[in-house]
Give the backbone structure.
Amino acid sequence: MIVGMTQLEDLLDRNRSFAMTNAKDDGPAIPFIPNMQAYIITCIDPRVDPAHVLGLNFGDAIVDRNVGGRVTPAVLLNVGWVHHLHTELAPAADWFEIAVIHHTDCGSGLFANEDLRHAFADASGLDEAALAPLAVIDPAETAAADVRLLEESTLIGSQVAISGYVYDVATGIVSRVAGNPSG
Ligand SMILES: [Zn+2]
């Protein structure tokens, strides 16, 4: 699509500007040990970009995003793999901590819409029963539930602090609703 290409050309121009700065040299020496040792799980919604909402700088955090910011098997695999690399390859390094951030007005809430969910299950071949629980209707409740999933995972050791938050898209405020950050 020509419109899309034009937009992407603009982004590639921004990339050339980025490449001319030293920003790319500020990343962590070990990629799975980000500068602020944060592992952020959140929604793909463009209003919820942690670089802006949390003021992340380049290399500060691992950011793992999906619809709703849910702790799915794929996310558990990602976190588990980072944990494994950390344990095996950098045992002396400070541990990362995990923040689950769900948000108000989340599009994942539409998984609760029967018509939309049913049609999507038909089109995708995915199990409709597995889609319904992905809906974020009450972000405080789902963030707390996903923190519990991480706490119960055998892939993640007790050294890893895990906490859950709600981002309010109307106020811009992130509030803690579950768990405790380290320190
Ligand atoms: Zn969302």
